[in-house]
Amino acid sequence: MMRMSKYYAPTLKEVPNDVEIKSHELLIRGGFIRKTASGVYTYLPLGTKVLKKIENIVREEMEKIGSQEILMPIIQPAEIWQQSGRWDDYGPEMMKLKDRHNRDFTLGPTHEEMITTIVKNELRSYKQLPISLFQIANKYRDEIRPRFGVLRAREFIMKDAYSFHNSEESLDETYEDFYRAYENILKRLGVDYRVVEADTGAIGGNKSHEFQVLAEYGESTIYYCDCGYYATDEKAESKLTFEVENEEEKEIKKVSTPDVKTIDDVANFLNSSKEKIIKSLLFKGRDGWVLALIRGDYDLNIAKLRGLLKDQTLEMGAPEEIKAEFGVETGFIGPVGIKKDNLKIVGDLSIKGIKNGITGGMEKDTHYVNVNLNRDFNVDIFADIRMVKKGEPCPKCGKPLKEAKGIEVGQVFKLGTKYSEKLNAYYTDEDGRSKPFIMGCYGWGVSRTLGAIVEQLHDDYGMLWPRSIAPFEIVIIPVSMKKPELVEKAEEIYNLLKDKYDVLYDDRDASPGFKFKDADLIGIPMKVVLGKKMKDGKVEVKLRYEKNAEEVEITESFDKLLEIIDKKLKEYDPKIYLNSIDKE
């Protein structure tokens, strides 16, 4: 019997000091997780139970599309990452270590190199293709600022899958299989979600979609349109165009701007609009420095810049390094007169039409005014490198873009031959020719799903787990353990239900209110309460979010109780309840 008195579920009344969002708070207060270090968590029995249920859903959907489960090592040799070029590309998020022989290894953040190395000597013929393999295992990424509990952790559980093909058409079919499987997972989890176009980032490839659980405080921003366009903020585009300003070019001048560094400060000091300012941002990558130029009222999209230059190592230059390399403080950098070997200047489309603009003066406490493109400075590459804004015209239909928040739980990629070519992974086609495998990869954040669901499905009292992954479906609560008739009947009902449902028996010697609050906090879908109505031969059955319980007669038999429980659990839907609250 699963007794609450013996179950390790240390719930907390008080909100922990270091929580940032509701899911983090509730998972700690509900006794699901405990923090071990920044971005590292222990999953207690309740958390582990939910994780296993999520894993089982993911595993079942993978097996339905013919993907085969394997388990690869977490520790990976540096050589395969160096061969693919990602040893440096992946950046400081990669956790690196040396063994006693001074050989370099990484704690795997992902397994593209490993899986390609494994199969390249085993899959030799087109007759063995296509094939897809998956694993569910821990991953490691040294996040610069772990936050939001399990949503942005340094150690996390992920399902990663990889597919190998001899044609783009075959890859397309498998990509669609995983796309549908991921949608099935989300439907079985019972959450609102969106599928959006996504940036491929350090994984690479030429096409990607993210699967986002919608949440008010989600860490991802989604731009979408009623026509069906959905994209992450890293990928989103718009039909916004920039006209060339109708002004005569004026003489360039350097003006004194003491202690004026930010865009707002510059605009105010010079009595100008931010649209006239050409913001200059210095980045450093594998090939040297990059000066990115963008209009002052826009934000630069580093994902687009990295993708454009095919350099995932690009990072904003440190102020002290910029001062040492260029002889000027960050706030006064600009394209006029800047000189540096291997400096590439990339301009966003928003600056193309600016006439008589404002830039940093390449000297402390100075700015240039009346700056004009092609006369005072040149740009090596023009491209869309900005973040779009809500209300801009949709790239497909032109209607205003809308904005939402989401939490990424899954992503699928078309990798092409990026890894197979670099790692010399080839097969023989039907004509006897050697060709690189065409690959796809498909990730699902199991531990992120835990946090994402709580972030979407909770109320003022606690979590509202979907039935498919709730730690327990039913909790049986006798209001007093000192009344033998209640205890005896509670145990009888537990034995009746345990073979059909996941049931918890709260046998603690605690007040009814304490037990009810814990059940709501933990998010168990249904309570069966044995209290004062037992004198009339009745128990109370209540869904997690219902205001009033239903009284059920059990004197003659338990048939009616079983009927009511089955009916209510089939109707249980936290989304409907939460939507009704929003409309009130």
UniProtKB/TrEMBL annotation:
Its EC number is 6.1.1.15. NCBIfam families: PRK09194.1 (NF006625), proS_fam_II (TIGR00409). The keyword Cytoplasm applies. SUPFAM superfamilies: Class II aaRS ABD-related, Class II aaRS and biotin synthetases, YbaK/ProRS associated domain. PROSITE patterns: AA_TRNA_LIGASE_II (PS50862). It catalyses: tRNA(Pro) + L-proline + ATP = L-prolyl-tRNA(Pro) + AMP + diphosphate. Consists of three domains: the N-terminal catalytic domain, the editing domain and the C-terminal anticodon-binding domain. Residues 39-466 form the Aminoacyl-transfer RNA synthetases class-II family profile domain. InterPro entries: aa-tRNA-synt_IIb, aa-tRNA-synth_II, aa-tRNA-synth_II/BPL/LPL, Anticodon-bd, Anticodon-bd_dom_sf, Pro-tRNA-ligase_IIa, Pro-tRNA-synth_IIa_bac-type, Pro-tRNA-Synthase_IIa_type1. It comes from Marinitoga piezophila (strain DSM 14283 / JCM 11233 / KA3). PANTHER family: MITOCHONDRIAL RIBOSOME PROTEIN L39/PROLYL-TRNA LIGASE FAMILY MEMBER (PTHR42753), PROLINE--TRNA LIGASE (PTHR42753:SF2). This is Proline--tRNA ligase. Pfam families: HGTP_anticodon, tRNA-synt_2b, tRNA_edit. It is found in: Cytoplasm. The lineage of its organism: Bacteria, Thermotogati, Thermotogota, Thermotogae, Petrotogales. Belongs to the class-II aminoacyl-tRNA synthetase family. ProS type 1 subfamily. The keyword ATP-binding applies. It comes from the Bacteria. Its main location: cytoplasm. Catalyzes the attachment of proline to tRNA(Pro) in a two-step reaction: proline is first activated by ATP to form Pro-AMP and then transferred to the acceptor end of tRNA(Pro). As ProRS can inadvertently accommodate and process non-cognate amino acids such as alanine and cysteine, to avoid such errors it has two additional distinct editing activities against alanine. One activity is designated as 'pretransfer' editing and involves the tRNA(Pro)-independent hydrolysis of activated Ala-AMP.
